[in-house]
Amino acid sequence: MGVIPGDTEGVPLVILVLAGTSDAGEIINELATRGLVVLASSLTAYGTQLARAAGAGQVLTGPLDAVGMEEVLARYPVRLLVDATHPFATGASAAAHAAALRKGVPYLRWERPPVNPTCPGIYRPAGWEESARMAFSLGRVVFLTVGTRHLAPFAAEAAREPGRRLVVRILPVAESLAFCHQCGLLPSQIVAMQGPFSRELNRALFSFYRAEVVVTKESGPQGGVAAKIAAAQDLHLPVVIVERPASLPGPATGRIEEIVAKALEVNKAENWGDYPGPRQP
User: Fold this and answer.
1) What does each C-alpha distance from 21 to 46, 50, 158, 180 come to in angstroms?
2) Are 166 and 254 in a shared domain?
């Protein structure tokens, strides 16, 4: 759809998608192909590029707290807020749900189905600090595949004893590389690559870096967890899976078609009174 103008007088009602996962692009594309106007929000410039490529009419870049979210809902004629942030982005989801409630905008959260492996060698600690301690208790070379947001406790744990080594796989973007350097990592410890990663590629990387432990987070099938576990099993490596946070507030679905159906429902309403909230300016 076309770019949403700053002056929203007379523009179609929009669907706001908070993008923070690879699934967000698919959701945006499905909505846009149905003729719906999509306004997206992304934390990073890279996410903004993906949202635009998926079909978003406009993308807001940068973090949004509850106040910022309310300002967006007040400025734009949003009919439905779709929360497609990452399962671990609890603060963003809580802020979005709270803002939607206060502004009377329907809210629907995208929830990836969980991965429940039953194979041996799987460890599920609670919290990031405990995960870091457990990982280095299982081996001296830890291959971390959780991004940079929770890198610090693993870097600190690696520094506690000589001989420990941390290898991190991150997105090849400047912000991620800069944070790795801030945490004291050397270039030889950084694997800057864009996924998805197959079982074979994971296995090759784990083997090349002589990993003794693999750490991932429970981000669902779309997060590549199954491929990581399979590759680690091939090499007889233990896998530490950081559990996703407890259930978040608000209605949720793991089916994109349900999001599309809800968006079409609210978009076809005869008047905004059917869905309490801000009207078009």
Assistant:
1) 12, 10, 28, 21
2) no
| Domain at 78, CATH number | 3.40.50.720
129-140: pLDDT as tens digits: 999 999 999 999
Tokens of 203: 């296995």
Grouping H, G, I as helix, E, B as strand and the rest as coil, residue 165 is strand
A 10 A CB-CB count for 137 gives 13
Cβ neighbors of 254 (< 8 A, separation 6 or more) are 110, 111, 112, 113
Residues 251 and 232 in one domain: no
Q: What is the pLDDT of residues 25-43, one digit of tens each?
A: 999 999 999 999 999 999 8
Among 8, 26, 7, which Cα is nearest to 17's? 26
Does the structure show a pLDDT above 60 at 279?
no
Q: For residue 11, what is the DSSP state?
A: P
pTM greater than the 0.90 cutoff:
no
Q: Is residue 221 part of a domain?
A: yes
Same domain? For 268 and 205 the reply is no
Residue 223 has pLDDT above 90, yes or no: no
Whole-Å CA distances, 168 to 87, 141, 251:
20, 11, 34
Question: Would 8 be classed as within a structural domain?
Answer: no
Domains identified in the chain, total number? 2
Q: Do 165 and 183 fall into the same domain?
A: yes
Looking at the structure, do residues 163 and 250 belong to the same domain, yes or no? no
Distance from chain centroid for Cα 16: 16
Instruction: For 72-83, write each residue's pLDDT tens digit.
Output: 999 999 999 999
Token code pair at residue 263: 């968006």
Give the domain extent around 202: 122-242
User: Which of 215, 250, 213 is CA-nearest to residue 235?
Assistant: 213
Based on the domain organization, do 172 and 235 belong to the same domain?
yes
